[in-house]
Amino acid sequence: MANPLFRKSKEEALEYDAYVAYCDGDNKWVYGPLRSFLEERRNYTLLLSDRGDGDVRPGQNRLAISNSISKCKKMILIISNEFVNNE
């Protein structure tokens, strides 16, 4: 059994700080100000599907997306007018 003093918590062992879920219409904002602020200024590691992070790629099935989300500490859901009006 591993020494509990040296064992990483489950959250520390995860690959990404957050998965960002958003609709295509918010792509410019997500890859501009949001990504810049969180990754460059705050040093977070984001999983963004449109750049092919993890197992998530546009058009992937739900299982692949679910597997990728399980590698993240948190989930950020971008709810915009575009998101609400998207079918």
UniProtKB/TrEMBL annotation:
Gene3D superfamilies: Toll/interleukin-1 receptor homology (TIR) domain. GO terms for biological process: signal transduction. Residues 14-87 form the TIR domain. This is TIR domain-containing protein. SUPFAM superfamilies: Toll/Interleukin receptor TIR domain. InterPro entries: TIR_dom, Toll_tir_struct_dom_sf. It comes from Mytilus galloprovincialis (Mediterranean mussel).
